């Protein structure tokens, strides 16, 4: 999975120009006091692309000062990095992010019926790369010029039909997190969205607004210790983030029970 190898020492080019060193890299090639070089990506060389994906070779300098290569997959729709305002595009609170997508954790509750258990929404769909069905939280790409919160609310509505809260309970946005850093540049924001079941739009069985060719089965499940059993026994392959969420939820419940004894 590494895909890295030694490369010539000449500085690679990016679109005909010398790539700038990483902002945190020591000047004039000097090393920090521990003798290690601050690793940095020196340049990116396109290899091939389709409408949605591109293969690129990253030329980078490692901690020993050696120049190496890494083959990387990236989305052609990925927003460009722009830190000209001095604010990182992956920090919490920066809603106009360079992350590719949002992963939504819906929290369904009703004030008029507080006895109802807290629920969440999961979706199953066929994923060609794994040649099978997967179980996931609702998710989708962030459109150009769209805030993370707006993308989360839009994708939730389109994929599940449910309408999330924005005014009474602002979505809780995580920092950008990586998905498979040994393979791809993809990053996402995890967004907690409150869904008010007393809202008339959420009564009954809301109708999703799926794209052409998108076939999604919605699952409304209790958010309790049974979630881990569900993802363990469902025929669909759970996505890693959902599985880790279920494991963490179960461990939290077990810890609560142990403290009560």
From TrEMBL:
GO terms for molecular function: ADP-ribose diphosphatase activity. InterPro entries: Nudix_hydrolase (IPR020476), NUDIX_hydrolase-like_dom_sf (IPR015797), NUDIX_hydrolase_CS (IPR020084), NUDIX_hydrolase_dom (IPR000086). SUPFAM superfamilies: Nudix (SSF55811). Residues 1-18, 82-95 have a biased composition (Polar residues). Keywords: Hydrolase. Coiled coil: none annotated. Residues 94-244 form the Nudix hydrolase domain. It comes from the Eukaryota. GO terms for cellular component: nucleus. Residues 1-38, 76-95 are annotated as: Disordered. One of its GO terms (biological process) is nucleoside phosphate metabolic process. The keyword Secreted does not apply. PANTHER family: ADP-SUGAR PYROPHOSPHATASE, UDP/ADP-SUGAR PYROPHOSPHATASE. Belongs to the Nudix hydrolase family. This is ADP-sugar pyrophosphatase. It comes from Seminavis robusta.
């Amino acid at each position: 999975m590494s895909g890295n190898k030694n490369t010539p020492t000449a500085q690679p080019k990016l679109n005909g120009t010398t790539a700038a060193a990483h902002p945190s890299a020591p000047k004039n090639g000097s090393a920090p006091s521990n003798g290690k070089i601050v690793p940095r990506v020196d340049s990116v060389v396109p290899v091939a692309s389709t409408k949605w994906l591109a293969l690129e070779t990253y030329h980078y300098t490692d901690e020993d000062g050696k120049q190496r290569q890494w083959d990387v997959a990236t989305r052609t729709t990925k927003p460009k990095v722009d830190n000209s305002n001095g604010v990182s595009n992956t920090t919490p609170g920066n809603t106009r992010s360079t992350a590719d997508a949002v992963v939504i954790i819906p929290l369904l509750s009703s004030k008029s019926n507080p006895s109802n258990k807290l629920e969440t929404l999961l979706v199953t769909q066929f994923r060609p790369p794994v040649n099978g069905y997967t179980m996931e939280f609702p998710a989708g790409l962030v459109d150009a010029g769209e805030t993370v919160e707006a993308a989360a609310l839009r994708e939730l509505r389109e994929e599940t039909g449910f309408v999330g809260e924005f005014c009474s309970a602002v979505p809780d946005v995580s920092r950008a997190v990586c998905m498979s850093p040994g393979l791809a540049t993809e990053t996402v924001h995890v967004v907690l969205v409150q869904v008010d079941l007393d809202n008339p739009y959420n009564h009954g069985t809301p109708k999703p607004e799926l794209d052409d060719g998108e076939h999604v089965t919605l699952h409304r499940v209790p958010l309790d210790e049974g979630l881990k059993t569900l993802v363990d026994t469902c025929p669909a392959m759970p996505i890693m983030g959902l599985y880790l969420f279920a494991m963490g939820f179960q461990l939290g419940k077990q810890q609560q029970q142990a403290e009560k004894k």
